[in-house]
Amino acid sequence: MDPFDFDDLPGSGDNKNEPSPPLPSSDDSPRKRRWLEPVIIVGGLLLIVLAIVVWQSFSTRTVRANSFILLDDSGTVRATLSMEDENPSLTFFDPEGRQRSRLALRFDGPHLLLYDENQTPRAILGLTDEGAGMNFLDSQGRLLHSFPR
Question: Is residue 141 situated within a structural domain?
Fold first, then answer.
C-alpha cells in the first residue's frame, strides 16, 4: 500500500468532477471567530498577571516577627533573635540549651554578655554615651575587674 495514495480520501476519487466540500467564505469566518480574539487577549493578560504574582512571591522575602528561634537537629534551642523590653537581643545557647552569650541593644547602648556553663554572666562589654566599658565577674557574679576604672 502506497502511503502517498490519496485516492481513498473523499473528493479524490476517479471522478475528478466530484464536488469538494465547500470552503468557508471570507464573510463567514470573522463572524464565526469573533470570540477568539477577546479570549486570546484575556488569556494573555491573565498569564502576564500570573507571571507578575509569581515573580513578586519569589523576589519579596520579608518576614516580620517579634522573635525567631533557631533549633538544632535534635530540637534544642541554639539561638534566639527577639525583642526584650522593646530592645533587640541576639542570644546563643550551647548544645545543652544553656545561655552562653547575648548581644543586646539596651536603652543606654549596645552590650555583649558572655556566660559560663552555669549561665552566670562572667564578662560584659558595653558602650554608652559615657564611653566603652568592660567588666569581668567571678562565678558568683561579683565584680573582679572593671575597665576603665
Answer: yes
In a domain, 40, yes or no: no
pTM of the model: 0.58
Domain count, the chain: 1
| pLDDT of residue 131 exceeding 80 | yes
In a domain, 32, yes or no: no
Q: Which domain holds residue 106?
A: 67-147
DSSP string of 49-107, one letter each residue:
HHHHHHHHHHH------SEEEEE-TTS-EEEEEEEETTEEEEEEE-TTS-EEEEEEEET
pLDDT of residue 47: 85
Q: Which residues pair with 8 in a beta bridge?
A: none
Contact (Cβ atoms closer than 8 angstroms) between residue 134 and residue 122: no
Assess if residue 113 is contained within a domain. yes
Residues 6+ apart with CB under 8 A from 148: 131, 133
pLDDT in tens, 50-59: 888 777 766 6
